[in-house]
Amino acid sequence: MQTNQTINAARLWDSLMAMAEIGATPKGGVKRLTLTEVDKAGRARFAEWCAALGLSLRVDAIGNMFARREGRDPARPPVLMGSHLDSQPTGGKFDGALGVIAGLEVMRTLNDLGIETEAPIELVNWTDEEGSRFGHSLMGSGVWAGVYTLPKAYALRDVEGVSVEEALDSIGAKGPHKAEPFPADSYFELHIEQGPILEREGKTIGIVTGAQAQVWYDAVITGQDAHAGTTPPSARRDALVAAARVIAHVDALMRARGEEGRGTVGQLQVLPNSRNVVPGEVRFSVEFRHPADAEIAGLAESFPAEARALVEATGCRMELTELFRIPAQPFDPDCVELVRRAAAKLGLPAREIISGAGHDAVYVARRVPAAMIFTPCKDGLSHNEAESILPEEAAAGCQVLFEAVLARANRPL
Amino acid sequence: MQTNQTINAARLWDSLMAMAEIGATPKGGVKRLTLTEVDKAGRARFAEWCAALGLSLRVDAIGNMFARREGRDPARPPVLMGSHLDSQPTGGKFDGALGVIAGLEVMRTLNDLGIETEAPIELVNWTDEEGSRFGHSLMGSGVWAGVYTLPKAYALRDVEGVSVEEALDSIGAKGPHKAEPFPADSYFELHIEQGPILEREGKTIGIVTGAQAQVWYDAVITGQDAHAGTTPPSARRDALVAAARVIAHVDALMRARGEEGRGTVGQLQVLPNSRNVVPGEVRFSVEFRHPADAEIAGLAESFPAEARALVEATGCRMELTELFRIPAQPFDPDCVELVRRAAAKLGLPAREIISGAGHDAVYVARRVPAAMIFTPCKDGLSHNEAESILPEEAAAGCQVLFEAVLARANRPL
User: Fold this and answer.
1) Are the C-beta atoms of A110 and A69 separated by less than 8 Å?
2) Which portions of chain A are predicted below pLDDT 50?
3) What is the pTM of this model?
4) B275: nearest CB among A273, A285, A381
């Protein structure tokens, strides 16, 4: 790397591994569900590390943690960077943790080099990005950005009936600061890609230009249970045959949109699910994603009627419920340009990429100019205990984060 | 009905309802699982009824019950009739019970009319037709006919680990007689159709000419779990998209064979079954049935390769296990003719029909000339608490059984 201000790759990796010890699973993954005792331990370690650097910590009402390194001009709005420390139930070591620990390494490097930035810099750990426990992903950043209200978030309950507010209180994670946008200069988030594109193309850095538009559905197809041996073709209303047509259509609609298309039936349940009974009911999820709002709007317009026609041709009927539609979220061109320049300056193989997954940056971007940096993960695997990255990939991502944040914090106003 | 030897329709219905009280469910169905305390109560009531008629009861080692009415010539092999008293977990009042209770009504009518038949007549209650508890349908008739060995049947266990032999002993259902074929003249079984054909065509009697050939499979399609948002079409190996193609193909193969074709995927499981994960594995059942052995042999020849090609075109792979193949079982032409003549004599609307379901008669027919009589059931519904028939349909079926059994028992040798 062609820079004389270099992060400490070994220290970064050591801290990643130290965080991964908290909630480590036998299969090499991490189970650090939000607002549990394990999360409490992760938060505590993070807070200790921040304190050791002389950062001042603020915690807001939804548990978001902001560790501030003062700038030469404390009145300037801070440059934010970060991600999340919570994990999936059978998650990996790097999803979320990479962005937080890399931000910590940026702070450590700034300290080591005695760099005083113009603007303050704040490192953020957002609460409950995963949504695994309370069923609502991007909760901390969503409340902060005003996408959800605090009372609504507080009232969410896990499968054991524990509310978010009770869980916050039980581990002392609720802070005195309001969970709402404050003036900030920008937000940068480093994250593993969670997909195969960078690895497949041999790129080290993904310059994330925005996040996809999405539309999600619940579908219920109703036919008629019938004896598989006695019911002739003309008397069948087979809900699974109908669902198969919809699944094939979702796949075709995705492929018709080329490599940027996404269309998935991930969850499906057959009733009564007995070998010798023609299925009377099938319940399943459908989702489409695309970088262009117009594509998702078009699908939301045409898909329900097309799917219904396919289903009704089999004698079944379908209820299709649109769960939500999220517009595409382009990231801030200036922030994206800083990421692009950093990768170029460092000579790192890079490509522009659209985020297929949701990230805290997507909600933060509604309030603050934002950008993201992706690094590859092995076989594109994530939300999986086998999630794996190389130390040099983590270091490269961290160095790009350092460059972008430093440039932004020192930019002339 | 044009006969002066008429069964007592009201008494038949009363006994059907009396048997349905044993294991009655709140939704109007029956739960009389084989070899449970409830089954014991059903067997006891059956035995009392038989004793009241002066029938002599034999029980064999697998719990099959044979209630004998002596003939003028005790040396003649008996005419058998019957069905089963066990039910599905959420079964109906008539599946099985109709054939047994109608046989009882035949015995009562013979007694009332003081008829002495040439050959003896035996009424049979076969053990565990349903297979719901120990996972092996047609167990009692299968052991009797030598399709399975007694030790194999004894060793089967329910989900709580209780073996068939332990269950037999626990309710005192194991008898001293060998479970093996004895010389018998014939076997007649009255059963509800469990399908929609008779009702749709306004027929009261189904003259069952045989049972379908069948081939059953277990399929496992393996693709690759992947993030639904980040994984582009070219990188997907979606096991559910692959399964959808196989489901559509099974349906097409069925329809290509017209109204006699049967092809069903009844059971299907998606892994990991998460909304935003491209499915990495799908497990499902496939079965085909057809009256003609050649059609099933042809399907067993061609289907695996065709399905595999469809799956491999999606980048997934498939393991397909053939669980079993049962040849078509034609019933005995002379016995079938007696059913046909009885329906004609009584002026009952009738049609020939192939049994789509498995029945005790299918295994018994391997050892003894056999035939079946079907009567309609509402909406073709069976294996369901809502299973429903009309008293006059039960009576018509019982009268046909009476005519056929009487004719056979009195036939000149």
Assistant:
1) yes
2) 1-2
3) 0.82
4) A285
